Amino acid sequence: MSAPAGIPPRPAAAPGGARAPAAAPRAPPCQNGPVQNQMQFPFGYGLHLENYSDSSGHYPQVPHEAVPSQLNNQYVADYHSACYSIPVQSVMTPSVGPSMLNTQQLYSGAPHPVESAGGLTQGAISSASHLHTSVPQSYSALSSHYSSSTSSSVASQGFPLSSGHYAMPTVSSAVYPNLSYPSMSVGSPYGQVFTSQSLPAVGQFKETNTFPDQSSTVPRTLQQQVPLGYNSTSWSTSDFQSAQDNFSRNNTGSLAKASNQINTDSSHPVSQNVQFTKPGVETSVVSSAVTSSIRTPVGDHLTEPASVPSNTQPSESLLQEGMQYGGYINNQASSAPAPLSSSSDDEEEDEEDEEAAIDSSSTTSSASPVINNYDALEGGGYPETNSAASSPAPTPQTSRTPKPFGYGYPTLQPGYQNATPSTSAMQPSNPGHHSGFQQYPQYPGVNQLSSTLGGLSLQHSQQPESLRPVNLTQDRNILPVSPVLAPVPNLNSDLRKLNCSPDSFRCTLTNIPQTQALLNKAKLPLGLLLHPFRDLTQLPVITSSTIVRCRSCRTYINPFVSFIDQRRWKCNLCYRVNDVPEEFMYNPLTRSYGEPHKRPEVQNSTVEFIASSDYMLRPPQPAVYLFVLDVSHNAVEAGYLTIVCQSLLENLDKLPGDSRTRIGFITFDSTVQFYNLQEGLSQPQMLIVSDIDDVFLPTPDSLLVNLHESKELIKDLLNALPNMFINTRETHSALGPALQAAFKLMSPTGGRISVFQSQLPSLGAGLLHSREDPNQRSSTKVVQHLGPATDFYKKLALDCSGQQTAVDLFLLSSQYSDLASLACMSKYSAGCIYYYPSFHHSHNPAQAEKLQKDLKRYLTRKIGFEAVMRIRCTKGLSIHTFHGNFFVRSTDLLSLANVNPDAGFAVQMSIEESLTDTSLVCFQTALLYTSSKGERRIRVHTLCLPVVTSLADVYAGADVQAAVCLLANMAVDRSVSSSLSDARDALVNAVVDSLSAYISTASNLQQSTLIAPNSLKLFPLYVLALLKQKAFRTGTSTRLDDRIYAMCQIKSQPLVHLMKMIHPNLYRIDRLTSEGAIHVNDRVVPQPPLQKLSAEKLTREGAFLMDCGSIFYIWIGKSCDNSFIKDVLGYPNYASVPQKLTQLPELDTLSSERARSFVSWLRDSRPLNPVLQVIKDESPAKTDFFQHLVEDRTEAAFSYYEFLLHIQQQICK
């Protein structure tokens, strides 16, 4: 093949980790506030104690396929009578064959251990024999998602092999390093899980502590009695959960206590800059000028005796008075005894800071040892010292045994009580109270809900709207006219204003149950949905030499901490009392001194800190981008190369980075081609390596070049590439060797690899064979090959993750490409996946346009490198399962080689200990990353929610969209680990269980009707829509790659985008008016009402827009008014509208202006620019539109009304 002009012909072929950080130590038990007499109120919302039941409720499996009526395919006039009619009762009593028995329940009346195989909550299914396995056995059963893969070993990186979905043991917060995790099964997608004892040491990551291998024997789980006639598996975790507290803490070894002896008499204010940035704009933040006494260098650590007492230890009397400082009653948060600063060797070993290697949270009188360990970046426990920051000793407290549910608990949760604060708490506790402190106001502490939520007593208020009973079978119009918003937590106005936006941080339950037993009764999932790096319109950026954090659990100071006085604050997660650093006394916004509670960190639940060098293991690396391009015959013929090169040329100057940004290119077919773009060359040089079995880098120093220095050569290459391979006849694809070369090239710095692939890899390492049999696609019982065929791509991803490199995949294929295997390269390296089925630049212009728009967003959006993320929560709660694209470095630390604004995550939670000592719980996520400009930053989100004791209150605070998204993530794991049919059954059982539990506990509801609280009225509809998505639906129309991509989207998309994919929004747009319109940037935006996703709402005389998230469909009825077609589409009549119209013309008509304004408003609400596709009534593309009408019957699924009848039938059994 001859090379084009400007590039010489092809020359002859060239011859030839990290240690898991210790979790935060368990704080000594503390009473969060003085014991107060409970005010007894009648049970709220018409519920009675005797109506609570603890039965698990088992229901037979839902058939995977309905038996639809024989309907013809011709549409009737109203599109309704043929597909939306109330069936006779016989339709809803399908026979259940033997294979449909033994349905796995999602929730049972007992607590759910992680290893159980009872439902989606566990992420995996095992046979009944597994119910009696010990804990070590269960770990291997947890994640055997890919039976054909083998566990990989990445000893070169020293990282434990884990996965993007890591089902973690529900151990208590004792000492994670003491747990010795066994090796997982050969089929595990995660390989082996190591602890800090067994992690191999690696290069730049330094081991500082060692722990003896200790194993704990946990009693076997009990098999719960199942009522006669049910074939459901259930479980009990009473023994398992009680055994968690017995894990040994007998760590040996010691960690030297260090303290920087410096002067604390500084009284100079501190200058600090706080800036508010807009999305996409990198903000340069001027370092704060700190005028203080001597700062001891980080490397200097002085050892102090463990027995030296603190000279400034506050007395108990002074502490109690300080709790009332400022005239506010910290009746719970501030009055509970806090753990004393411990200097024991055992505790110091357990408390390792994985974010900062320097003391950044306490006074200037002491500093902490620098722990040079990468896992020590982003925060766990902290080595404590006996310093002036020491807190009072905890008050002895007797252990309390949780009472059985329904007995001895307050009848109303604190969020709805109208409690009167005790007047005695308003007064100083003794005459030692210092009156010299300046009185200042503050927001209520995190545990003052009972005194600040007055006026919400159920005795004086009506039933909340969220608990209004809705008869689902009779109320046909449950869909609101406007998009569903996230429920607002039941907090007082001050806390509500300070709380984190639900777009960033959202919980499935905005009222947290006080106990696991109460959560089990509700039959609802508990978890978090995160969008941590999303684009923000306003973000407080803070730079300071001191980032204030709790010395015990390493929580960042936030709006929900309690200030005891000017010098001390109490952590809202572990309740430890910490000192306020001198620098924090100065407020840079008001330029005032002595008001730490007015600092921006305490006024904003979402902040971003500019981190110092203490949060780095190496200097920030430049932004490095490597593009790996398929140039085989299929790829070139599809025409994607022209679009990619053109997009790169247009956005080359917009790539995130600085003057150090580097870029490189690799192409491949049956060989691997490199490009020398070294500055000084007159033209790019192609270097070919034909030995794909032993690929190497021909000129390592000239393949990744500085973007600015070699820009002209890069442009020459991009202009030439589309024509270089235009006459190729090479049909093979050596993707694996190309990726191996890319890994070698990127390893020194890390960065981002963008892979463009158009077919099955057919040569070299990682070659794949077609596994899809179209004849088996119609099977509704078993969908095979949802897991990878080889572990090559997973191993490669783990290697890349260890070198801080993420792999993004663009799959442009017209035939099966085994996305189940290829997706592993992105899933385990924190990359992202783009999929363009049947891609062709001319035959499928819609896909070509989508690729172009996706690339523009992809190349220019914000990016974070070398990121780690940790989620912390109030003591008593635990996180046990993560969902998303990442690598689990330790039990609670996620490694993200790259993080982007479009990535979402989900986590499952459980309640390990009763939350009786608190009325509020908090969650905090910290994302530590390197910006494209080379700054180390920490983005922190904090969410606060009330604790409730009533089952009615749990239902009142249910977030149905968050619950459905979490269940969708769990169902994906169930599909891969067990089967698609099990995942579908568990989704249906989730609806049956939750509604059954609600009905059984409400005395005033008819048991024979299908009733749901208003908060859950959309639950059955959303689950039915989920069952009809490509990821979970049955029938003959879903290709395997399409199904896998839908599952990948569920696991990686944030909630706001995922919900549009599950349940699109339908609007009628041929009658847009200004009534109810909103004004956005001098533009009038119509607000048409939402329509049901049913053909019942369609009419041939109208035009409808369906918002599916990544694509807009505009369906034009055959008899649509010609004035709309002319004024909006620009064509005289319906017949003249082309079949492949992908945009609305700009016409000078009122109808055109309104339609374009509405579409633009929808587009502006999301980062990706959706493709618009106009569909005529008789167009073949109408199938894509009608498949989203989820309320109608499809080829193998119920209509919405049939589904409701089936749910009712299961509940009444």
UniProtKB/TrEMBL annotation:
GO CC annotation, single: COPII vesicle coat
Compartments where located: Cytoplasm, Cytosol; Cytoplasmic vesicle, COPII-coated vesicle membrane; Endoplasmic reticulum membrane
Coiled-coil region(s): none
Limits of the Sec23/Sec24 trunk domain: 620-859
Stored SUPFAM superfamilies: beta-sandwich domain of Sec23/24, C-terminal, gelsolin-like domain of Sec23/24, Helical domain of Sec23/24, vWA-like, Zn-finger domain of Sec23/24
Main location: cytoplasm
Pfam family, one: Sec23_trunk
A GO BP annotation: COPII-coated vesicle cargo loading
Domain of life: Eukaryota
Biased composition range(s): Low complexity: 13-25, 333-343, 358-368
Single annotated GO MF: SNARE binding
Domain spans labelled Gelsolin-like: 1086-1158
Comp. bias regions, Pro residues: 1-12
Membrane topology recorded in Swiss-Prot or TrEMBL: Peripheral membrane protein
Matching InterPro entries: ADF-H/Gelsolin-like_dom_sf, Beta-sandwich_Sec23_24, Gelsolin-like_dom, Gelsolin-like_dom_sf, Sec23/24_helical_dom, Sec23/24_helical_dom_sf, Sec23/24_trunk_dom, SEC23_SEC24_subfamily
Sequence ranges of Acidic residues compositional bias: 344-357
Keyword Metal-binding on entry: yes
Comp. bias intervals (Polar residues): 384-401, 414-447
Family affiliation: Belongs to the SEC23/SEC24 family. SEC24 subfamily.
Protein name, per record: Protein transport protein Sec24B
Organism the protein comes from: Mauremys mutica (yellowpond turtle)
